Amino acid sequence: MVLGTMMLHLGEVDGLVSGAAHTTANTIRPALQIIRTAPDVKLVSSVFFMCLPDQVLVYGDCAINQNPNAQELADIAIQSAMSAEAFGITPRVAMLSYSTGTSGFGPDVEKVKTAVEIAKQLRPDLMVDGPLQYDAAIDKEVAALKAPNSTVAGRATVFIASDLDVGNIFYKAVQRSTGIVCIGPMLQGLRKPVNDLSRGCSVEDIVFTIAITAVQALA
Asked: Which residue from 74, 184, 169 is spatially nearest to 123, judged by alpha carbons?
């Protein structure tokens, strides 16, 4: 891993894909030490591209940040929206929770509310809303009942999990239950493209991850 990361750092290669035989930590640690984050970026996060039959959805962060605070969650939302846009997906960002609007309460809900406020302050042009339950974020009929005034509910394209437990479970649940193509995790925030794979990945997963790494390198 260190050798491959050094090759990327020196410009001998344009991107790096790892993880089929290495842990996420062993993939990311050399990248953080050698490649480092892009200018003005405080954290590295990740997204998955969930290739449904009729659209591609973006899920983040499902692989890196264990328990992000509100500021970090806002940064993840903005990074994920930028990644979606880079791949031709109009970003409509749903900040996920067990509560929609004021239907529930608790520290986790308050964290998501604060993250939404921060994201809107940093990127007032971005369509972002929350807290939203997943059904309200993706289903127009549910959205009409639970969040009728939301510009995101019912038509979200980017879904931000409140922590790594939620993110990792829900992307794998969708992938394994439906059999859809799931590309990622694509890392965000590094100066050069470094992408991770699950050790349970298929050959198809590897090929697709190489493809998005190439697109990142050309950007």
From this structure: 74
Q: Which amino acid, one-letter code, is at 85?
A: E
Confidence band of 21 (pLDDT split at 50, 70, 90): confident
Domain 42-183 has CATH 3.10.129.10: no
Domain 1-36+190-219: CATH architecture, name and number where available? 3-Layer(aba) Sandwich (3.40)
Residue type for position 126: L
β 127-132/92-96 pair status: parallel
Q: 216 near 187, Cβ under 8 Å?
A: no
Is residue 131 reached through a cis peptide bond, with omega within 30 degrees of 0 on the bond before it?
A: yes
Model pLDDT for residues 139-186, shown as the tens digit of each residue: 999 999 999 999 999 999 999 999 999 999 999 999 889 989 888 889
